[in-house]
Design a protein that fits this description.
The chain is of the alpha/beta class and 211 residues long. The protein has three helices and 13 strands. Strand 7 and strand 8 form a beta hairpin. The chain starts with a helix and ends in a 9-residue tail after the last strand.
Length: 211
């Protein structure tokens, strides 16, 4: 039993070391592509966290409806899972505001504290748990994603939207060339008391100046 526990500890340590190396490599070579992006540097600002494929955003437990968003990130061929990709997401609270705690600097002054980071494993999968954000102004409810590739390229992709939102425009439901290869319109289905939506990404798809 002691040997098994030791082996499991070593495996976990090796996985964490691999993730840390991939994160350091991405930061060292960071380069914004795909046009201007205010606050996109947030994807680089995870500090000393060792990122994994799943994260839970702040206030998940305090809000309804709770949602789980998951999917696969693929290489440019649209088939091969992409490992080591970091996905940053941020959203409003249930009132449609980007809440602050005070003392925010740089990008957090606009984005607030409801955000998180995930990093794909060998299967390219990612998952984050959150709640349905509120609407603000004339915009439909949405969640903003930013991608950081292991090679250091980072860029914004189209927002996650919700299929039943009456504020969705036609160009949001059916974009002609969606960044990341998918429109982001989620059709949520209840599974074990939580609403689940899925969205895949293709690295570099429809990203101007990607090459």
């Amino acid at each position: 039993m002691h040997i098994i526990k030791l082996l499991l500890s070593l495996i976990i340590l090796m996985m964490a070391s691999g993730c840390s190396f991939a994160q350091e490599s991405a930061l060292k070579n960071a380069r914004l592509v795909g046009g201007p992006c205010q606050g996109c540097e947030a994807v680089l600002d995870y500090g000393d966290r060792t990122l994994i494929a799943t994260d839970t955003l702040p206030e998940f437990e305090q809000n309804e409806p709770r949602i789980k968003i998951t999917g696969t990130v693929y290489q440019a061929d649209g088939v091969t899972p992409a490992e080591g990709v970091i996905l940053f997401v941020h959203q409003t609270n249930a009132q449609g505001e980007y809440p602050k705690r005070g003392g925010e600097t740089v990008w957090e002054r606009s984005y607030g504290y409801i955000h998180g980071w995930v990093q794909t494993g060998a299967d390219g999968r990612y998952t984050f748990f959150t709640f349905k954000p509120g609407k603000y102004s004339t915009q439909p409810a949405h969640i903003h994603p930013i991608i950081l590739e292991p090679n250091g390229k980072y860029y914004w992709v189209g927002s996650y939207f919700f299929e039943d939102d009456p504020r969705l425009r036609d160009d949001q439901r059916n974009p002609s060339a969606p960044r990341g290869g998918s429109s982001g319109v989620l059709s949520l289905k209840e599974e074990n008391g939580i609403l689940v939506g899925e969205r895949d990404f293709i690295l570099g798809k429809n990203i101007r100046g990607y090459e």
